[in-house]
Each structure stands twice: as C-alpha cells, then as structure tokens.
Design brief:
Layout (H helix, E strand, L loop, with lengths): L1 H15 L3 H20 L2 H4 L5 H4 L2 H13 L1 H9 L1 H7 L4 H21 L2 H10 L4 H27 L4 H17 L3 H8 L4 H9 L2 H9 L5 H26 L2
Length: 244
C-alpha cells in the first residue's frame, strides 16, 4: 500500500504542476453552472433539488474525463519514462492502482468544488440533502468508471489524441446502453430479458437510480466491477506492451 501511495502522490502532484488541472477544474465548474442554471432552468423549475445539476454529469464526464485519462499511460510510453517506472521496485498493479487513484482523486476535487451549487439550493429552499449526498456519490463513482475506461485506452496507445477519442467512444457506448431512446428501439427487435441485460451495462441506469437518493448494493457492485474490469484490462495491456 505504501508503494501505491508513492505513485499516487507523484501523479497527483504532476496534475497541479501544469496548467492542466486548473484549466480542467475551471471548465468543469463553468460548464456545470451553465448547464444547471441556463439549460437546466434551476430557478424556473421551482423545485428545491439538484436534478438539473446532476443530469448533465454523464455528458460532461464523457468529454472531460478522457482529457484527464489520455495522458496517464500514453504520455509515459511516448516519452519513454514508462521504462523507468517499470524498473522501480513496484508491481504493475501498484502502478496502475496509484495512477488511477490519483486521477480519481483529482476528479473528486473538481466535483467537490461544485459545493456552491449545493449551498445555493439550500438557501433557496429545503432540499433532500440525503438524496444530494447520494447523487454526489453516484457522480463520483461514475467518474471512476469513465477514468478506468480512459486509462485502459491510454495504455493501448502512445498517442494522447487517439486515447482521448477511443475513451470517449467507449464511454459513449456505455452511456447509450442505458439511454431510454436506445432501449425503446431495442425493445422492437429483442426480447425484454436482453434489453434488461443491455440496460444493466449502462452508466445512466445505475447513476439515475443513485441520483434519486437510492443507494442500491447492485449499483455499487456495478461500478466496482466496471472499474475492476477496466483496471485489470489496463494491467493486461501494459503487460503485453512490455513484452513487445
């Protein structure tokens, strides 16, 4: 665990050593505010909740999270520093875990900085703060899912642009799997059991449930399994690349 924390601290410091961290946080906060107050019509809705705030998180993450994850391994491979990293007395899994946790922590910091929206809704009314806490947890877990996918895509290429595009594409597929319109179309051609199976793989299905204040064990298991799967895939890809 100590070696994981070393990689974690190294990676987290590297974010704030460049303008990337600050640019990402500013863009995330500005877009969150625009989508919540302008497109989401928070004031016009006349309801003391943050549904209009969390509704846009999957689509924000679809674009912004790959911007974080694209550099995780592609930059290391392109610069050649991955060879140095692999010669350190740490296992491949420790390196993967440390990098992922640092990126996830960074995403969590950006998410936490949206707290003024929460304060605003409490000033305007009496929201269900338990449901809001649950929605924040769901958003954080979903960010982890997007990051795990992006990390795997970054490990597969030296090109950060390709890593960004493929991560966004795979993330979009996982969003479509739970999108109501897509599920309605699938019902026309597939039996309900298969439609339910596809729906269970989608981000929206599980995030929507949590964002309504219901933290179901199945949703937590889904995100844990998704993150575990893609981190395992990342380690396997890196191991194969190391043998090349």
């Amino acid at each position: 665990m100590n070696k994981v924390s070393i990689v974690f601290r190294r990676e987290l410091r590297s974010y704030f050593a460049t303008p990337l961290a600050y640019v990402f946080i500013v863009i995330f906060l500005v877009l969150s505010a625009v989508f919540t107050f302008q497109l989401g019509g928070l004031f016009e809705r006349g309801q003391a909740d943050l549904q209009s705030f969390f509704r846009w998180h999957p689509w924000l993450y679809l674009v912004l999270i790959p911007a974080i994850s694209m550099r995780l391994w592609a930059e290391e491979r392109n610069s050649g520093s991955i060879e140095l990293l692999m010669t350190l007395p740490i296992t491949l899994w420790q390196a993967v875990a440390g990098k992922f946790l640092a990126a996830w922590c960074f995403a969590g910091i950006a998410l936490a900085l949206t707290f003024p929206v929460w304060i605003t809704i409490n000033y305007l009314g009496s929201p269900d703060n338990g449901a809001i806490v649950a929605a924040y947890i769901g958003s954080f877990l979903m960010a982890g899912g997007f990051l795990a996918i992006g990390m795997c895509m970054s490990a597969a290429t030296r090109n950060q642009v390709i890593a960004f595009i493929t991560a966004a594409l795979v993330g979009f597929i996982f969003l479509l799997a739970g999108f109501p319109l897509v599920l309605d179309l699938l019902r026309l051609a597939l039996p309900q059991v298969l439609v339910d199976a596809v729906s269970s793989l989608g981000f929206l299905t599980h995030f929507d449930a949590i964002s309504k204040g219901v933290i179901d064990l199945r949703d937590l298991v889904y995100f844990a399994a998704l993150i575990g799967f893609w981190l395992t895939a990342t380690a396997l890809v890196l191991d194969m690349k190391k043998a090349e």
